[in-house]
Design goal:
The chain is an alpha/beta fold. It has three domains: about 130 residues, Flavodoxin domain (Rossmann fold, 3-Layer(aba) Sandwich), CATH 3.40.50; about 110 residues, Rossmann fold; about 110 residues, Rossmann fold (3-Layer(aba) Sandwich). Helices cover about 40% and strands about 20% of the residues. The chain contains 16 helices and 13 strands. The strands form three sheets. Strands 2-1-3-4-5 form a five-stranded parallel sheet, sandwiched between helices. The chain has a four-stranded parallel sheet with strand order 7-6-8-9, with helices on both faces. The protein has a four-stranded parallel sheet with strand order 11-10-12-13. α1 crosses α6, α11 packs across α12 and α11 runs antiparallel to α16. Bound molecules: flavin mononucleotide. It comes from Victivallis vadensis.
Length: about 425
Protein backbone atom coordinates (compact mmCIF):
# COMPACT_ATOMS: atom_id res chain seq x y z
CA UNK A 1 0.00 0.00 0.00
CA UNK A 2 1.58 3.28 -1.12
CA UNK A 3 0.83 6.01 1.41
CA UNK A 4 1.28 9.77 1.42
CA UNK A 5 0.75 12.39 4.10
CA UNK A 6 0.33 15.78 2.47
CA UNK A 7 -0.32 18.97 4.41
CA UNK A 8 -0.47 22.74 4.43
CA UNK A 9 0.58 24.49 7.60
CA UNK A 10 1.36 28.19 7.95
CA UNK A 11 2.37 28.23 11.58
CA UNK A 12 3.51 24.64 12.08
CA UNK A 13 0.58 23.16 14.04
CA UNK A 14 -0.68 20.85 11.30
CA UNK A 15 2.86 19.99 10.29
CA UNK A 16 3.43 18.49 13.76
CA UNK A 17 0.42 16.22 13.29
CA UNK A 18 1.51 15.38 9.74
CA UNK A 19 4.98 14.27 10.91
CA UNK A 20 3.50 12.16 13.71
CA UNK A 21 0.98 10.49 11.38
CA UNK A 22 3.58 9.79 8.68
CA UNK A 23 5.81 8.22 11.37
CA UNK A 24 2.96 5.96 12.46
CA UNK A 25 2.18 4.87 8.90
CA UNK A 26 5.60 3.32 8.53
CA UNK A 27 8.97 3.93 6.89
CA UNK A 28 7.55 3.72 3.34
CA UNK A 29 5.09 6.55 3.92
CA UNK A 30 5.89 9.73 1.98
CA UNK A 31 5.51 13.06 3.80
CA UNK A 32 5.20 16.29 1.85
CA UNK A 33 3.82 19.79 2.06
CA UNK A 34 1.24 20.55 -0.62
CA UNK A 35 3.59 22.76 -2.67
CA UNK A 36 6.09 19.94 -3.24
CA UNK A 37 3.70 16.99 -3.25
CA UNK A 38 4.35 14.15 -5.73
CA UNK A 39 1.60 13.18 -8.23
CA UNK A 40 -1.34 11.78 -6.27
CA UNK A 41 -1.89 8.88 -8.73
CA UNK A 42 1.10 7.11 -7.21
CA UNK A 43 -0.66 6.54 -3.88
CA UNK A 44 -3.36 4.19 -2.65
CA UNK A 45 -3.93 6.00 0.65
CA UNK A 46 -3.47 9.76 1.14
CA UNK A 47 -3.85 11.57 4.47
CA UNK A 48 -4.66 15.24 3.81
CA UNK A 49 -3.92 17.73 6.63
CA UNK A 50 -4.45 21.47 6.92
CA UNK A 51 -4.72 24.37 9.30
CA UNK A 52 -8.14 26.01 8.98
CA UNK A 53 -8.07 29.51 7.56
CA UNK A 54 -11.43 31.23 7.31
CA UNK A 55 -13.09 27.87 7.33
CA UNK A 56 -11.05 26.23 4.54
CA UNK A 57 -7.71 24.64 3.73
CA UNK A 58 -5.40 26.96 1.85
CA UNK A 59 -5.45 27.08 -1.94
CA UNK A 60 -2.45 24.86 -2.65
CA UNK A 61 -3.79 21.92 -0.65
CA UNK A 62 -7.30 22.52 -1.88
CA UNK A 63 -6.31 22.17 -5.53
CA UNK A 64 -4.21 19.07 -4.73
CA UNK A 65 -7.21 17.49 -2.97
CA UNK A 66 -9.48 18.24 -5.90
CA UNK A 67 -7.01 16.62 -8.25
CA UNK A 68 -6.30 13.56 -6.15
CA UNK A 69 -8.50 10.50 -6.42
CA UNK A 70 -6.85 7.99 -4.09
CA UNK A 71 -8.76 4.81 -3.38
CA UNK A 72 -8.53 5.61 0.35
CA UNK A 73 -8.13 8.91 2.17
CA UNK A 74 -7.86 10.41 5.65
CA UNK A 75 -8.38 14.02 6.74
CA UNK A 76 -6.81 15.82 9.69
CA UNK A 77 -7.00 19.49 10.53
CA UNK A 78 -6.02 21.88 13.26
CA UNK A 79 -8.13 24.88 14.13
CA UNK A 80 -8.66 27.57 16.69
CA UNK A 81 -12.27 26.55 17.36
CA UNK A 82 -13.03 23.61 19.65
CA UNK A 83 -12.45 20.30 17.88
CA UNK A 84 -15.93 19.09 18.86
CA UNK A 85 -17.61 22.27 17.62
CA UNK A 86 -20.02 22.44 14.71
CA UNK A 87 -17.46 24.63 12.94
CA UNK A 88 -14.90 21.81 13.11
CA UNK A 89 -17.44 19.35 11.71
CA UNK A 90 -18.26 21.72 8.86
CA UNK A 91 -14.55 22.09 8.02
CA UNK A 92 -14.12 18.29 7.95
CA UNK A 93 -17.22 17.88 5.81
CA UNK A 94 -15.98 20.49 3.34
CA UNK A 95 -12.72 18.62 2.99
CA UNK A 96 -14.49 15.29 2.57
CA UNK A 97 -16.67 16.85 -0.12
CA UNK A 98 -13.49 17.49 -2.11
CA UNK A 99 -12.78 13.75 -2.26
CA UNK A 100 -15.85 12.21 -3.91
CA UNK A 101 -13.88 9.36 -5.47
CA UNK A 102 -12.17 8.23 -2.26
CA UNK A 103 -13.25 6.17 0.69
CA UNK A 104 -12.46 8.40 3.67
CA UNK A 105 -11.29 6.12 6.47
CA UNK A 106 -10.28 8.68 9.13
CA UNK A 107 -11.27 12.23 10.07
CA UNK A 108 -9.65 14.17 12.88
CA UNK A 109 -10.08 17.75 14.09
CA UNK A 110 -7.52 18.95 16.61
CA UNK A 111 -7.05 22.18 18.47
CA UNK A 112 -4.24 24.35 17.07
CA UNK A 113 -2.70 27.27 18.91
CA UNK A 114 -3.16 30.69 17.38
CA UNK A 115 0.11 32.24 16.32
CA UNK A 116 1.15 34.94 18.90
CA UNK A 117 0.92 37.69 16.25
CA UNK A 118 -2.68 36.69 15.53
CA UNK A 119 -3.59 36.87 19.22
CA UNK A 120 -2.11 40.37 19.42
CA UNK A 121 -4.07 41.42 16.34
CA UNK A 122 -7.31 40.05 17.78
CA UNK A 123 -6.65 41.88 21.06
CA UNK A 124 -6.09 45.10 19.13
CA UNK A 125 -9.51 44.89 17.44
CA UNK A 126 -12.29 46.96 18.92
CA UNK A 127 -14.49 45.04 21.36
CA UNK A 128 -17.64 43.81 19.64
CA UNK A 129 -16.05 43.56 16.16
CA UNK A 130 -16.41 40.24 14.26
CA UNK A 131 -13.09 38.69 15.37
CA UNK A 132 -12.47 41.06 18.25
CA UNK A 133 -11.31 40.15 21.72
CA UNK A 134 -13.76 39.17 24.42
CA UNK A 135 -13.95 36.83 27.35
CA UNK A 136 -15.25 33.88 25.35
CA UNK A 137 -12.47 34.27 22.78
CA UNK A 138 -9.86 34.67 25.49
CA UNK A 139 -10.97 31.29 26.97
CA UNK A 140 -10.94 29.60 23.54
CA UNK A 141 -7.54 30.94 22.59
CA UNK A 142 -6.17 29.84 25.96
CA UNK A 143 -7.66 26.36 25.44
CA UNK A 144 -6.01 26.09 22.03
CA UNK A 145 -2.61 27.19 23.31
CA UNK A 146 -0.09 24.37 23.47
CA UNK A 147 -1.95 22.23 20.90
CA UNK A 148 -1.35 19.96 19.22
CA UNK A 149 0.23 18.39 22.29
CA UNK A 150 1.66 14.92 22.88
CA UNK A 151 -1.81 13.45 23.49
CA UNK A 152 -3.12 14.91 20.22
CA UNK A 153 -0.20 13.42 18.33
CA UNK A 154 -0.63 9.99 19.81
CA UNK A 155 -4.42 10.06 19.18
CA UNK A 156 -3.78 11.01 15.56
CA UNK A 157 -1.23 8.21 15.21
CA UNK A 158 -3.62 5.59 16.54
CA UNK A 159 -6.51 6.79 14.39
CA UNK A 160 -4.52 6.80 11.15
CA UNK A 161 -2.82 3.49 11.87
CA UNK A 162 -6.26 1.92 12.37
CA UNK A 163 -7.49 3.57 9.17
CA UNK A 164 -4.62 2.17 7.15
CA UNK A 165 -5.36 -1.28 8.53
CA UNK A 166 -8.89 -0.98 7.12
CA UNK A 167 -7.65 -0.22 3.61
CA UNK A 168 -7.62 -3.33 1.42
CA UNK A 169 -4.21 -3.63 -0.25
CA UNK A 170 -4.35 -3.29 -4.02
CA UNK A 171 -4.05 -6.60 -5.86
CA UNK A 172 -0.89 -7.59 -7.65
CA UNK A 173 -0.75 -5.58 -10.80
CA UNK A 174 -2.31 -7.39 -13.69
CA UNK A 175 -4.50 -9.76 -11.67
CA UNK A 176 -6.97 -10.61 -14.41
CA UNK A 177 -9.73 -13.09 -14.99
CA UNK A 178 -12.18 -14.23 -17.61
CA UNK A 179 -15.79 -15.22 -16.94
CA UNK A 180 -17.71 -17.36 -19.41
CA UNK A 181 -21.35 -16.40 -18.83
CA UNK A 182 -23.55 -19.00 -20.51
CA UNK A 183 -27.28 -19.34 -20.25
CA UNK A 184 -26.74 -22.79 -18.72
CA UNK A 185 -28.25 -26.19 -19.21
CA UNK A 186 -29.44 -28.89 -16.89
CA UNK A 187 -28.82 -31.56 -19.58
CA UNK A 188 -25.57 -33.24 -18.53
CA UNK A 189 -24.46 -34.34 -22.00
CA UNK A 190 -25.05 -30.86 -23.42
CA UNK A 191 -22.53 -29.27 -21.07
CA UNK A 192 -19.68 -30.77 -23.09
CA UNK A 193 -20.28 -27.99 -25.62
CA UNK A 194 -19.42 -25.42 -22.97
CA UNK A 195 -16.30 -27.44 -22.02
CA UNK A 196 -15.19 -27.49 -25.62
CA UNK A 197 -15.76 -23.78 -26.20
CA UNK A 198 -13.97 -22.91 -22.96
CA UNK A 199 -10.99 -25.11 -23.89
CA UNK A 200 -10.32 -22.77 -26.86
CA UNK A 201 -10.38 -19.54 -24.79
CA UNK A 202 -7.09 -17.70 -24.17
CA UNK A 203 -7.31 -18.42 -20.41
CA UNK A 204 -9.36 -20.84 -18.37
CA UNK A 205 -12.55 -18.95 -17.47
CA UNK A 206 -14.70 -19.00 -14.38
CA UNK A 207 -18.03 -20.41 -15.59
CA UNK A 208 -21.30 -18.65 -14.72
CA UNK A 209 -24.89 -19.42 -15.71
CA UNK A 210 -27.38 -16.62 -16.22
CA UNK A 211 -30.41 -18.92 -15.91
CA UNK A 212 -31.66 -19.03 -12.34
CA UNK A 213 -33.75 -22.09 -13.18
CA UNK A 214 -30.69 -24.02 -14.35
CA UNK A 215 -28.57 -22.88 -11.40
CA UNK A 216 -31.22 -24.06 -8.97
CA UNK A 217 -31.60 -27.37 -10.77
CA UNK A 218 -27.86 -27.93 -10.45
CA UNK A 219 -27.96 -27.12 -6.73
CA UNK A 220 -25.96 -23.90 -6.97
CA UNK A 221 -22.88 -25.67 -8.30
CA UNK A 222 -22.35 -22.95 -10.95
CA UNK A 223 -22.57 -19.30 -9.80
CA UNK A 224 -24.63 -16.53 -11.33
CA UNK A 225 -22.71 -13.81 -13.16
CA UNK A 226 -22.83 -11.41 -10.16
CA UNK A 227 -21.83 -14.34 -7.93
CA UNK A 228 -18.82 -15.11 -10.13
CA UNK A 229 -17.78 -11.44 -10.26
CA UNK A 230 -18.08 -11.10 -6.49
CA UNK A 231 -15.92 -14.18 -6.01
CA UNK A 232 -13.24 -12.73 -8.30
CA UNK A 233 -13.42 -9.34 -6.60
CA UNK A 234 -12.88 -10.87 -3.18
CA UNK A 235 -9.92 -12.79 -4.61
CA UNK A 236 -8.32 -9.43 -5.46
CA UNK A 237 -8.93 -9.62 -9.21
CA UNK A 238 -9.38 -6.13 -10.69
CA UNK A 239 -9.44 -6.69 -14.46
CA UNK A 240 -12.24 -8.84 -15.82
CA UNK A 241 -13.41 -9.84 -19.27
CA UNK A 242 -16.77 -11.49 -19.72
CA UNK A 243 -17.63 -13.78 -22.60
CA UNK A 244 -21.35 -13.30 -23.21
CA UNK A 245 -22.35 -16.83 -24.16
CA UNK A 246 -25.50 -15.77 -25.99
CA UNK A 247 -26.38 -15.59 -29.66
CA UNK A 248 -28.67 -12.57 -29.99
CA UNK A 249 -28.55 -9.13 -28.38
CA UNK A 250 -31.95 -9.54 -26.75
CA UNK A 251 -33.40 -9.48 -23.27
CA UNK A 252 -30.87 -11.96 -21.85
CA UNK A 253 -27.99 -9.85 -23.07
CA UNK A 254 -29.48 -6.68 -21.57
CA UNK A 255 -29.90 -8.45 -18.23
CA UNK A 256 -26.31 -9.63 -18.42
CA UNK A 257 -25.11 -6.09 -19.10
CA UNK A 258 -27.13 -4.69 -16.22
CA UNK A 259 -25.57 -7.34 -13.93
CA UNK A 260 -22.19 -5.82 -14.78
CA UNK A 261 -23.17 -2.26 -13.84
CA UNK A 262 -22.80 -2.76 -10.08
CA UNK A 263 -19.21 -3.82 -10.67
CA UNK A 264 -18.34 -0.65 -12.56
CA UNK A 265 -18.70 1.64 -9.52
CA UNK A 266 -15.56 3.86 -9.42
CA UNK A 267 -15.00 3.15 -5.72
CA UNK A 268 -15.79 -0.52 -5.34
CA UNK A 269 -15.80 -1.82 -8.90
CA UNK A 270 -13.21 -3.48 -11.09
CA UNK A 271 -10.52 -1.33 -12.67
CA UNK A 272 -11.60 -2.74 -16.02
CA UNK A 273 -14.62 -4.81 -16.98
CA UNK A 274 -15.49 -5.59 -20.58
CA UNK A 275 -17.96 -7.89 -22.26
CA UNK A 276 -18.20 -9.44 -25.73
CA UNK A 277 -21.08 -8.62 -28.07
CA UNK A 278 -23.33 -11.47 -29.27
CA UNK A 279 -22.63 -12.93 -32.73
CA UNK A 280 -25.98 -11.87 -34.17
CA UNK A 281 -25.61 -8.29 -32.97
CA UNK A 282 -23.55 -6.83 -35.83
CA UNK A 283 -23.25 -7.76 -39.53
CA UNK A 284 -19.49 -8.26 -39.27
CA UNK A 285 -19.82 -10.62 -36.30
CA UNK A 286 -22.69 -12.45 -37.95
CA UNK A 287 -20.58 -13.19 -41.03
CA UNK A 288 -17.60 -14.48 -39.05
CA UNK A 289 -19.92 -16.54 -36.88
CA UNK A 290 -21.68 -18.08 -39.86
CA UNK A 291 -18.30 -18.80 -41.48
CA UNK A 292 -17.61 -20.86 -38.37
CA UNK A 293 -21.03 -22.52 -38.22
CA UNK A 294 -21.11 -23.47 -41.90
CA UNK A 295 -17.53 -24.80 -41.95
CA UNK A 296 -18.75 -28.33 -41.35
CA UNK A 297 -22.28 -28.38 -42.74
CA UNK A 298 -23.17 -31.07 -45.31
CA UNK A 299 -23.97 -29.99 -48.84
CA UNK A 300 -27.59 -30.97 -48.26
CA UNK A 301 -30.73 -29.35 -46.85
CA UNK A 302 -30.33 -28.35 -43.19
CA UNK A 303 -32.88 -26.76 -40.90
CA UNK A 304 -31.60 -25.03 -37.80
CA UNK A 305 -33.75 -24.32 -34.77
CA UNK A 306 -32.88 -21.11 -32.95
CA UNK A 307 -34.55 -19.69 -29.87
CA UNK A 308 -36.06 -16.30 -30.76
CA UNK A 309 -38.31 -14.29 -28.53
CA UNK A 310 -42.04 -14.94 -27.99
CA UNK A 311 -43.07 -11.38 -28.85
CA UNK A 312 -40.86 -11.31 -31.92
CA UNK A 313 -38.51 -8.65 -30.62
CA UNK A 314 -35.38 -10.52 -31.73
CA UNK A 315 -36.84 -11.58 -35.11
CA UNK A 316 -34.82 -8.98 -37.00
CA UNK A 317 -31.57 -10.57 -35.82
CA UNK A 318 -32.71 -14.08 -36.75
CA UNK A 319 -34.11 -12.82 -40.07
CA UNK A 320 -30.71 -11.31 -40.87
CA UNK A 321 -28.98 -14.55 -39.83
CA UNK A 322 -31.35 -16.64 -41.99
CA UNK A 323 -30.80 -14.37 -45.02
CA UNK A 324 -27.04 -14.53 -44.54
CA UNK A 325 -27.09 -18.32 -44.07
CA UNK A 326 -29.01 -18.77 -47.33
CA UNK A 327 -26.19 -16.96 -49.14
CA UNK A 328 -23.84 -19.82 -48.18
CA UNK A 329 -26.35 -22.40 -49.43
CA UNK A 330 -30.05 -21.75 -50.20
CA UNK A 331 -30.82 -25.22 -48.78
CA UNK A 332 -29.70 -24.13 -45.30
CA UNK A 333 -32.55 -22.60 -43.33
CA UNK A 334 -33.11 -21.15 -39.88
CA UNK A 335 -36.30 -21.13 -37.82
CA UNK A 336 -36.98 -20.36 -34.18
CA UNK A 337 -38.94 -21.97 -31.34
CA UNK A 338 -40.37 -18.56 -30.45
CA UNK A 339 -41.23 -15.47 -32.48
CA UNK A 340 -41.95 -14.95 -36.18
CA UNK A 341 -39.72 -17.68 -37.64
CA UNK A 342 -41.81 -20.57 -36.34
CA UNK A 343 -42.04 -23.94 -38.06
CA UNK A 344 -45.58 -23.04 -39.19
CA UNK A 345 -44.16 -20.22 -41.29
CA UNK A 346 -41.31 -22.36 -42.64
CA UNK A 347 -43.27 -25.49 -43.57
CA UNK A 348 -45.01 -24.03 -46.64
CA UNK A 349 -41.62 -22.79 -47.89
CA UNK A 350 -40.06 -26.24 -47.42
CA UNK A 351 -42.96 -27.88 -49.24
CA UNK A 352 -42.81 -25.35 -52.05
CA UNK A 353 -39.09 -26.01 -52.46
CA UNK A 354 -39.86 -29.73 -52.68
CA UNK A 355 -37.61 -30.63 -49.74
CA UNK A 356 -37.86 -34.40 -49.10
CA UNK A 357 -35.02 -34.86 -46.66
CA UNK A 358 -33.68 -32.56 -43.92
CA UNK A 359 -30.92 -32.56 -41.36
CA UNK A 360 -32.14 -30.87 -38.18
CA UNK A 361 -29.66 -29.00 -36.01
CA UNK A 362 -30.02 -26.73 -33.00
CA UNK A 363 -29.01 -23.11 -33.65
CA UNK A 364 -28.36 -22.97 -29.94
CA UNK A 365 -25.02 -23.00 -28.16
CA UNK A 366 -25.81 -26.22 -26.34
CA UNK A 367 -28.18 -29.01 -27.22
CA UNK A 368 -30.29 -28.64 -24.09
CA UNK A 369 -33.97 -29.01 -23.45
CA UNK A 370 -35.14 -27.20 -26.61
CA UNK A 371 -32.95 -29.34 -28.85
CA UNK A 372 -33.78 -32.63 -27.16
CA UNK A 373 -37.53 -32.05 -26.89
CA UNK A 374 -38.77 -29.23 -29.14
CA UNK A 375 -36.51 -30.14 -32.05
CA UNK A 376 -35.92 -33.87 -31.87
CA UNK A 377 -38.48 -35.19 -29.34
CA UNK A 378 -40.86 -38.04 -30.05
CA UNK A 379 -43.87 -35.90 -29.05
CA UNK A 380 -46.18 -34.98 -31.95
CA UNK A 381 -45.43 -31.27 -31.43
CA UNK A 382 -41.67 -31.55 -31.97
CA UNK A 383 -40.27 -30.19 -35.22
CA UNK A 384 -39.07 -33.64 -36.20
CA UNK A 385 -42.54 -35.16 -35.71
CA UNK A 386 -44.27 -32.32 -37.52
CA UNK A 387 -41.85 -32.42 -40.46
CA UNK A 388 -42.10 -36.18 -40.75
CA UNK A 389 -45.89 -35.91 -40.62
CA UNK A 390 -45.55 -33.53 -43.58
CA UNK A 391 -43.60 -36.17 -45.49
CA UNK A 392 -40.09 -34.84 -44.92
CA UNK A 393 -37.58 -37.41 -43.76
CA UNK A 394 -35.42 -36.06 -40.92
CA UNK A 395 -32.07 -36.87 -39.41
CA UNK A 396 -30.88 -35.02 -36.34
CA UNK A 397 -27.43 -33.69 -35.48
CA UNK A 398 -27.89 -32.95 -31.78
CA UNK A 399 -24.82 -30.85 -31.16
CA UNK A 400 -24.83 -27.35 -29.75
CA UNK A 401 -23.05 -24.71 -31.83
CA UNK A 402 -20.51 -24.13 -29.04
CA UNK A 403 -19.27 -27.67 -29.73
CA UNK A 404 -18.36 -26.81 -33.35
CA UNK A 405 -14.59 -26.30 -33.17
CA UNK A 406 -14.72 -23.26 -35.49
CA UNK A 407 -17.45 -21.66 -33.35
CA UNK A 408 -15.37 -22.25 -30.22
CA UNK A 409 -12.50 -20.46 -31.98
CA UNK A 410 -14.85 -17.62 -32.94
CA UNK A 411 -15.65 -17.04 -29.24
CA UNK A 412 -11.94 -17.13 -28.37
CA UNK A 413 -11.33 -14.44 -31.02
CA UNK A 414 -14.11 -12.30 -29.58
CA UNK A 415 -12.47 -12.46 -26.16
CA UNK A 416 -9.11 -11.57 -27.68
CA UNK A 417 -10.68 -8.60 -29.46
CA UNK A 418 -11.62 -7.13 -26.05
CA UNK A 419 -7.93 -6.25 -25.78
C1 LIG B 1 -5.76 34.42 9.56
C2 LIG B 1 -6.24 33.24 10.37
C3 LIG B 1 -7.50 32.70 10.09
C4 LIG B 1 -7.96 31.63 10.85
N1 LIG B 1 -9.19 31.14 10.60
C5 LIG B 1 -9.70 30.19 11.39
C6 LIG B 1 -11.03 29.71 11.19
O1 LIG B 1 -11.73 30.08 10.27
N2 LIG B 1 -11.50 28.77 12.04
C7 LIG B 1 -10.76 28.28 13.09
O2 LIG B 1 -11.27 27.47 13.86
N3 LIG B 1 -9.48 28.70 13.28
C8 LIG B 1 -8.93 29.62 12.47
N4 LIG B 1 -7.64 30.03 12.64
C9 LIG B 1 -6.78 29.32 13.61
C10 LIG B 1 -5.96 28.27 12.86
O3 LIG B 1 -6.78 27.38 12.18
C11 LIG B 1 -5.08 27.45 13.81
O4 LIG B 1 -4.17 28.27 14.48
C12 LIG B 1 -4.38 26.34 13.08
O5 LIG B 1 -3.87 25.43 14.02
C13 LIG B 1 -3.27 26.84 12.20
O6 LIG B 1 -2.67 25.76 11.57
P1 LIG B 1 -1.21 25.76 10.95
O7 LIG B 1 -0.26 26.17 12.06
O8 LIG B 1 -0.98 24.38 10.55
O9 LIG B 1 -1.23 26.73 9.83
C14 LIG B 1 -7.15 31.08 11.90
C15 LIG B 1 -5.90 31.62 12.13
C16 LIG B 1 -5.42 32.69 11.39
C17 LIG B 1 -4.07 33.25 11.65
Amino acid sequence: MKTLVVYSSRTGNTEKLARAIAGALGPDCTLSCAEDAPPPEKFDFIAFGFGVYRGWPDGELRSYMLRAKPRYAGIFLTLGAYPDSEHAQVCLARAEGMLPASKVLAKLACHGAYAPGMVERMKARPAGSAHGWDEERAVRVAAAAGHPDADDLSRAQQLFKAALAKAVPPPDDGKKALVAAWFGTAVDAAREAYDLAESQLPVKPLRAYTSRFVRRKLGGEVPSLPGALQRLYLDGVRHVKVLAGLLAAGEEYELLRSDLEAFRNPLTGFDSLSVTAPPLSTPERLRRFLDAVTAELPDAPVLFMGHGHADGRSDFQYDAAAAELAKYNPAWRLGCVEGGRSLDTLLPELKKAGVRRLELRPFLLVAGDHAVNDLAGAEPGSWKSQLEAAGIECTVELRGLAAYPAVARYFAEEVERLG
